[in-house]
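Structure first, sequence second, as always.
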């Protein structure tokens, strides 16, 4: 019978879901989904001082936004402390662990001596075989693993290959602290075993932990999972990832206007490849993903590539789906409050009409919201500096003439308004551009926009004439003042 693949994502809730954690979650999700398995979620909240409910919420929200669903209930590691202690009692009973009463001063002396002798094994095993009867009174011991002193510990890593550690260099690590709380090393092993995890896919900063955890598995008589340690993500310059490179929370990428589908596609290509293919649907990712295709070198984060990919996904969405994405992101972006407060059914229809002319030039949803501002702007609309410069007194007189030329147009369509504007320009022997540019500035507040006749059709007759009258009215005031 084929074993069911079970992976797990196990974040520590001490901060947001960062980009590296999101990629780890994605790799675990893809590997399990491709094999009909399960991905479990375990919140490693044993660091009680740093773990927060806000961080847990941010992690769960980030996973949900990325579309990375997990199977079963979320497991909280701290709640399993009694089970972790039970496993240690089992080790004490079988001789796989022992009580250590070494004082801090003794441990410090061991450490200094080991450093002076160039040894990596810092604890000298002074309580490995000592009789408990000789223990100092009133001292609460730690419980240590009775690790093998000779031979080697090895894993066949799915990414790193075979990795070997000499046991003489590995300490008898602490399993339970003197206050009875389990250590991270112990808790991870017990939880992975009890949750039936078959594959541990995580960052290669955990690679050295694998040796110690493998020893705990062996001491408990359990089968260790398959390990895959993936390289970390570096900045574009090859240095350790920092905030300036993009080491931000997933929520920050949502606030910058990236689509979850684009983020998934970008993350899967950070360190993993499938031929020369760059763009993957979710189904294609699931069917193609495998661990040996992950490179051993750190991946480099590239904002320009992410923007390009995001622009592709924006262009591919139909207008209804794209508007849904825009509405979904409004609570998370600084520019969203203004639009959110105006979203009537009528405005939605105008936005749907505008999106075909906007989406080809947008890299993010924030770009789209900003470029669509002319659709939902209040009158009189604000003009940017270029638009102000364009609307000279002469241009405003042209706008006043356009009001009269456009007022009779029915039905109000792009074709009908174009015919009226062209006729207006011909009658006055003006080039179409000399009419279209001030028209664009008056209607959108900018000198760039989708096709001007599409803008006219999108905004509707009443709004267009009102905006033109606003600007033509300013021209009349200016002319009177000069007279």
């Amino acid at each position: 019978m084929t074993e069911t693949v079970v992976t797990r994502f196990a974040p520590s809730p001490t901060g947001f879901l960062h980009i590296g954690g999101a990629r780890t979650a994605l790799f675990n999700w893809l590997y399990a989904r491709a094999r009909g398995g399960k991905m479990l979620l375990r919140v490693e909240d044993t660091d009680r001082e740093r773990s927060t409910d806000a961080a847990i919420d941010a992690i769960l929200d980030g996973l949900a936004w990325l579309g990375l669903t997990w199977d079963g209930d979320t497991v909280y590691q701290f709640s399993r402390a009694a089970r972790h202690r039970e496993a240690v009692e089992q080790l004490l009973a079988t001789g796989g662990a022992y009580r250590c009463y070494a004082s801090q001063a003794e441990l410090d002396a061991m450490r200094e001596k080991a450093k002076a002798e160039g040894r990596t094994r810092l604890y000298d095993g002074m309580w490995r075989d000592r009789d408990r009867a000789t223990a100092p009174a009133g001292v609460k011991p730690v419980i240590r693993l009775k690790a093998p002193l000779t031979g080697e510990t090895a894993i066949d890593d799915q990414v790193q290959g075979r990795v070997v550690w000499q046991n003489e260099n590995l300490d008898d690590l602490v399993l339970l602290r003197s206050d009875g709380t389990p250590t991270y090393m112990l808790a991870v092993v017990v939880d992975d075993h009890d949750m039936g995890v078959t594959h541990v896919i995580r960052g290669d900063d955990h690679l050295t932990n694998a040796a110690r955890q493998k020893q705990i598995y062996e001491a408990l008589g359990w089968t260790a999972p398959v390990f895959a340690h993936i390289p970390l993500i570096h900045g574009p310059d090859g240095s350790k990832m920092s905030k300036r490179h993009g080491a931000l929370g997933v929520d920050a990428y949502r606030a910058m206007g990236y689509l979850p589908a684009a983020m998934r596609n970008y993350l899967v290509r950070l360190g993993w490849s499938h031929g020369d293919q760059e763009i993957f649907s979710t189904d294609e990712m699931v069917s193609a993903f495998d661990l040996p295709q992950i490179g051993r070198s750190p991946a480099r984060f590239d904002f320009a590539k992410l923007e390009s990919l995001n622009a592709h996904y924006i262009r591919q969405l139909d207008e209804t789906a794209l508007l849904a994405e825009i509405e979904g992101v409004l609570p998370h972006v600084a520019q969203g409050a203004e639009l959110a407060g105006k979203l009537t059914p009528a405005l939605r229809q105008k936005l749907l009409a505008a999106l075909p002319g906007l989406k080809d030039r947008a890299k993010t949803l924030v770009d789209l919201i900003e470029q669509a501002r002319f659709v939902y702007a209040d009158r009189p609309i604000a003009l940017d500096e270029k638009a102000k410069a364009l609307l000279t007194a002469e241009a405003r007189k042209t706008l006043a003439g356009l009001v009269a030329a456009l007022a009779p147009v029915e039905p109000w369509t792009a074709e009908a308004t174009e015919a009226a504007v062209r006729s207006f320009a011909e009658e006055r022997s003006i080039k179409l551009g000399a009419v279209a540019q001030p028209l664009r500035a008056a209607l959108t507040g900018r000198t760039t926009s989708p096709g001007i006749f599409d803008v006219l059709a999108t905004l509707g007759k009443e709004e267009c004439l009102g905006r033109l009258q606003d600007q033509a009215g300013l021209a009349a005031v200016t002319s009177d003042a000069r007279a």
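Margin note: The chain has four domains: 6-73+233-300, 78-230, 317-376, 385-482.
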